[in-house]
Write a structure and sequence with these properties.
three-stranded mixed β-sheet; 364 residues; 15 strands
């Protein structure tokens, strides 16, 4: 029994000693690493792009490095511990096309920057704009020298945001609608106050007019004087009523203008979302994503987006019209491709019009 007990005690002591050695080694190694890190300086900057190729890239390592220099961040030869990794990431993420920048240092002293770029589905080169848009509706300006193959929209169409805008279009749309609603509610509140004043003036006038009747035991002279005083007060009230009525008319006109402006704004915002949805629909179809190489967008007299499609095949353009019934129009065009152009020849027509219901109109 005694021997077994001593064996157990020695075994426990051995385990404790072993873990003590391991812990001591970890602490010593951690100390050495800390000392090394305190003395280590940045020897090189390595910038890498995630999920991109040389032909599908919005920027380059050289341009990212130039941005670091322009930002006044001196990195090379600085102590590793003094490098502001968070500040570097934030600086690079100011670029709309950078979705995330991950910054870290290696034991050898290299500063690694891993950049994840946004994935655009369309490039807007319209009316002074040169921006990309993602499937989620994030808008960012096209960086200089970007090489990214995607759908292109040209033409005279003006998107519902400025040419310098960068951000989430959904958030922009919601904030604009909220701001418009708040302006309208404020105008309605002011309008209700003025209408209340108008009702009070009307009641005050009517009450005075009821007092014109001659009272019992009132002399004719007193009645005449009282009526004259009432007439003066009524005239004053009627003057106020005319001013209030004019103000009510102006406010009603302002309401109509604001409602019309908001309706146009909402239509523009909704149409842009529909445009992005249409681009996504085209890109999700293997045939149309390869066939439609460009889209020209303009605005109709009613404010809607109208498209002209530039296909890869043939020598014609497709007048697609508005985005209404887009799926039916594409199906109709595909049927005409298969049953019409395949037999009549791809070079026969100069334009194909699919705007009208159950019709395809061709011009030679």
């Amino acid at each position: 029994m005694a021997k077994n007990m001593w064996r157990k005690i020695l075994r426990v002591i051995g385990v404790i000693f072993g873990w003590g050695v391991v812990l001591a080694y970890i602490l010593y190694a951690s100390h050495l690493a800390k000392v090394h890190r305190g003395e280590q300086r940045i020897s090189d900057i390595v910038i890498e792009f995630n999920d991109s190729t040389a032909t599908q890239r919005l920027t380059s390592s050289a341009r990212m490095y130039e941005q670091l220099k322009r930002g006044g961040l001196k990195i090379k030869n600085r102590e590793v511990d003094s490098v502001d990794a968070v500040g570097i990431a934030r600086l690079l993420e100011r670029n709309g096309f950078v979705e995330e920048a991950r910054v870290y240092t290696t034991y050898s002293g290299n500063l690694h920057i891993d950049i994840s770029e946004r994935e655009p589905i369309v490039r807007l080169r319209v009316a002074g704009y040169d921006s990309f848009a993602t499937s989620g509706g994030y808008i960012f300006r096209a960086p200089r020298g970007s090489a990214c193959y995607t759908s292109v929209i040209t033409g005279g169409y003006r998107p519902p945001f400025s040419a310098t805008f960068e951000g989430d279009f959904t958030e922009l749309r919601n904030s604009r609608r909220k701001a418009g609603q708040e302006r309208l509610e404020k105008l309605y509140d002011e309008y209700r106050v003025v209408k209340s004043q108008q009702r009070e003036l009307r009641k005050e006038r009517n009450d005075l007019l009821k007092q014109r009747k001659r009272k019992i035991f009132e002399s004719k002279e007193s009645h005449t004087l009282r009526k004259q005083g009432i007439a003066v007060k009524v005239a004053e009230i009627e003057g106020k009523q005319r001013k209030v009525a004019q103000r009510v008319e102006r406010m009603e006109a302002s309401q109509r203008r604001l409602l019309a402006r908001q309706e146009r704004e909402h239509r523009r915002l909704d149409d842009f979302e529909r445009l992005l949805s249409f681009v996504e629909m085209v890109q999700s179809d293997n045939f149309w994503s390869a066939e439609i190489v460009q889209m020209e967008a303009d605005t109709t007299s009613l404010g809607a987006i109208s498209l002209l499609l530039i296909p890869r095949s043939g020598d014609f353009v497709v007048n697609f019209g508005t985005l209404d019934n887009a799926t039916e129009k594409l199906d109709k065009l595909r049927t005409f491709y298969d049953k019409g152009l395949a037999h009549l020849g791809w070079e026969r027509y100069k334009s194909i019009d699919v705007r009208y219901n159950k019709q395809v109109i061709c011009t030679e």
